Structure formats: structure tokens, C-alpha cells
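INPUT
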Amino acid sequence: MERNPTRNIKIGSVEIGGGAPVVIQSMCATKTTDTEATATMAQTLFDAGAGIVRIAVDTNNDAAALAGIRNNTTANLSVDLQENWRLAEKVAPHVDKIRYNPGHLHHAEPSVPWREKVERLADIAAAHDCALRIGVNCGSLDPLRREADDPMFLSALEHAEFLDSIGFTQYCVSLKESDPAAVLAVNRRFARERPGVPLHLGVTEAGMPPEGIMKSRSALEPLLAEGIGDTLRVSLTVPNDRKTEEIDAARLILENVERKTILRPGEWNPGRLNIISCPSCARVQNGAFVELAENLREATRPVAEALTARPDQRTITIAVMGCRVNGPGETDDADLGLWCGPHEVNLKRDGVLLGAFSYEDIQPRLLRELHEIAQLSVKSSKNEC
Ligand code: SF4
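OUTPUT
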């Protein structure tokens, strides 16, 4: 598979970029403080073909658990720090890569300039032979860039330029969106602008299989076929014991690119009810989240079929998120957005919070709202000329 001439970075026993084979990634969804379960899951994913396995770290207890996890798996480990940049010092001795999110860096200690935080992250990473990932996500944009044209691209570019300016080159970039067309566009633009920077590809909140696999294929296969992308993750909403399906899907994508049997535009009809859902991670606050997403898909199927059969209907998006960390932000653009708490599910319509509902009551309430939106959107599209 011909690749763009990106520079090479080392993550434990694997390399990405610089002509190395494309590396598959996945992520643990066990509680990070459950050292045994997390080490076991990391090893299972590694043995199944994930060259890099990510773990979420939010607290001192999570950070403290990493030493035990490290000792019990041979997987190459990456940590996801979200806004907890101060924990980098504690995690770096035990991992091979640190992912930070430029948007989240503004949340914790807003009085500390972001450049100071990134410089600190780079110093710590360099001292422990860790790579960094600048992980830009559509649901948690840099507040200083939110109103800009193409904020994801600009945010990634700014951080890449800053790391270059301080002499830190062991980094890669990811630009993740839930819309496959947006993933294609922003990664192509970044690869044109910074062809030497290794890219981690992914469609965020791709959802449940098979739709989540098709969404990922429709963005990642064309990119890889163009030589763009050095590592990939297929994010799927599946229970923990089926997480290796992410790796199978990533392998299928790489094989399709190799065989030149990639998904072409128009070959897959996504329908007019778009359910996006997060792949879950250690931050999930109620294990019922995956089951809720699956039940909602079944319950909304008749509406999905009715919408898809109507040419006058626009696409309606339902977002289902597993926690309060990314849930509130990543449901903003959906017609109906849910994020799950320990005992209740928060429901938003058009970005406005309608309330928190029990896990039993959320489905009927969501269906009520969905039927109403479907009626309104037929009317509004009829009024368009
Ligand atoms: S929304 Fe929350 S639970 Fe889901 S993957 Fe993102 S951080 Fe993890």
C-alpha cells in the first residue's frame, strides 16, 4: 500500500509513518482502576491485532493504576488525558503515547496559556520516550477556534506548528468527525498542508455495526487509497466482550484498500435516520449504555424506514453518548441527543436540554420527540421550493 511520505514516529514496539505498515488501534472500555480487567482487555486487543491500545485516564487513581496495567500486558499503551494535562507526569513513565485534545486543554486551569500546557506535555513525553497525539474532535472544539471556518483543521495546524517550533517531532494528528464526508475533507486538507505529519484516522461515534463499519469504510478507505493515514481506529458501539470487532473492521478496511475494492461514493445508502453513538470507554457511567443504544436502534427502525422511503424528508440525527465528559458537547448538533449518567439519561432536542429521564422512560420520550420532528421536517421540506 503506497503511503504519503510522513515522518516516522515510535510508539513502544511499533512505528507509524515513514513507510511503516498502517497500525490498527483500539481502546479499553473497562474501568481504568480495575487493573486486572484493563490489563486483560489491553492484552486481548493487542493479541487480536491492535498495535496500540488506548486507556482513558481522568483521576489520580486512574493514573496510579497504570503501573499495574503496564506490568501485566505487553500491549503498546496510549493514554487519553482529555483536560487532565497535569496527570501527564504520572502516566508518562508507564505508557508509550499520550493523546491530548486541544479543545479540552482550555477547560482545566484556563488561566494557564495552552502553549504552556503543550510545552509541558512535550517535555514530559520527551523525557519518557513517549509520542504525542494532537487529537482534535468535532464535539470538543477549541473555544478560540469554534467560530472559524474549518476549526478542526486550524486547531490541528496550530498545535502541529507549535510542537514543531519547540523541536518536538514525535507526534501525530487526528481529526475526527461523526460525518464521514467531513472526515474525508478535513484529513485531505491537513495532508495537503502538512504532508509530513503522520495521521491517525477515524470516524468518531461511528456507532453500532454494521452501520458503524460502513461509515468508517466510506471515509477511511478512500483516504488510505490516496496514501493518507498511518494508523486507524474503527470506533464501534459494542459490548466489551465484542471489542475485537473494531480490529476486524479495521483489518477489512486495510484489505479492501490493498485489493482495490474500496467503497465508492453512492455504493452505500446510509438512510435518513442517522444514529451516532460513542464506542464507550472507561468513562461510561452506566453499563446499560450499549444496550440502550441497541434498543433505540430497534425501536426507531420503523421511523428510519419511513424516512428513507420519503424523498421529501431530510436526515434526522440521534446521538447517544456514554458519559458527561463528551456527551454534552457531542450532542449539540444532533436533532435528538442523549448522554447517559449513572441513573438517568439526559435528553436534548436541537441542543436544548429537555430533562433527565430514567433508563426505562427515555425510550418512549425519545420516540415521541422523534415522531414530532419527522412530521415537522416533512412539512418544512415541503415548504422549500
Ligand atoms: S462519550 Fe464518554 S464514554 Fe463515550 S467514548 Fe467518549 S469519553 Fe468515552
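end of record. The chain is about 40% helix and 20% strand.
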